Peptidase inhibitor family I36 protein
Amino acid sequence: MKRSSRSLLGAATALAIVVGGVLAAAPANAAAPSSCTSGRACLWDNANYKTANSTGNLLWFVQYVDDARRYTYSNTKISAHDSANSAFNNGRTDAAYFWEHEQYRGLWFKLARGQGDSDFGNGVPGRADGYFNNRVDSAAFESIHRP
Ligand SMILES: [Ca+2]
Ligand SMILES: [Ca+2]
């Protein structure tokens, strides 16, 4: 009886450690900026999901942006051409891709659903350098367009 009770306690402790490990890993997936609502992928002129000091000034899409030269960040006159420094994929199902040139040409990187990159300058997923800083000109969810 004593032995059985000790084993049970051991099992409970082990379970708590596993749960603790899972919880500790959760912050790696940061929450989407509130301005980038569900179903959208978003881009900002500056790092940390901001344009002109506000996270509310952004370029967002629910399908694609084929040519960022045609757009400005919302509430600003700042061109989205070769200017994005951060992005978040708050889509419901798809990964999102970001290309260096308009019409999905050139080098690209991918953000999984729920993934953001708050600073292209310190690298993007799959690429360690700041190559994509101020360089993205098209983007799309993978169901619309993929490399
Ligand atoms: Ca910029
Ligand atoms: Ca980065």
In short: The chain is about 15% helix and 25% strand. The chain has two domains: 1-30, 40-141. Residues 45-46, 83, 85, 134 surround calcium ion (ligand 1) (CB under 6 Å).
